[in-house]
């Protein structure tokens, strides 16, 4: 999924320290965009929205224009408080704990990223559940 995205179109927002985050992503062979937002770069951790606001600023966009991929309830609350759209991945928590999101998928490999002829980012996925508060 990430291989289809230019590094300037996404960032990492994590509660982990930058050192731990870079180590874990390197172990998974994921090229990390720069800059990132790590837990040691914010005054308040998740569920405070500060981290996602900083992430949006790094991408030079409004939080409402961001899609956050999250797997944890505290991160979901932070993204919602920042007014981001949220796609939950049901890999570390039961679906029942992820209900407040816009969408839920079972696994990251179900998400397909591509660009259309106008260079507009297109994301598709088979949603397990669409959040009850999301527009149809």
Tell me what the structure shows.
The chain has 136 residues and is an alpha/beta fold. The chain has a single domain (2-130), classed as Rossmann fold (3-Layer(aba) Sandwich), CATH 3.40.50.1000. It contains 3 helices and 6 strands, in the order ααβαβββββ. The strands form 2 sheets. A 4-stranded mixed beta sheet has the order 1-2-3-6, covered by helices on one side. The longest helix is centred in the N-terminal third of the chain and has 10 residues, at 18-27. The radius of gyration is 14 Å and the shape is globular. The two termini are 25 Å apart. Mean pLDDT is 90; it is low at 132-136.
Set out the fold topology.
Blueprint lengths: L17 H10 L22 H9 L8 E4 L2 H9 L3 E5 L13 E3 L6 E4 L5 E4 L4 E2 L6
Parallel strand pairs: 1-2, 2-3
Antiparallel strand pairs: 3-6, 4-5
Could you provide a short overview of the structure?
The chain is α/β, with parallel strands linked by helices. About 20% of the residues lie in helices and about 15% in strands. The strands form two sheets. The chain has a four-stranded mixed β-sheet, covered by helices on one side. A two-stranded antiparallel ribbon has the order 4-5.
Principal-axis shape: globular
Largest sheet: 4 strands, mixed
Q: What's the oligomerization state?
A: single chain
Q: For the record, what is the CATH homologous superfamily label? A: HAD superfamily/HAD-like
- Number of structural domains: 1
CATH architecture: 3-Layer(aba) Sandwich
Strand content: 15-25%
What is the string of SSEs from the N terminus onward?
A: HHEHEEEEE
**N-to-C CA distance:** 25 Å
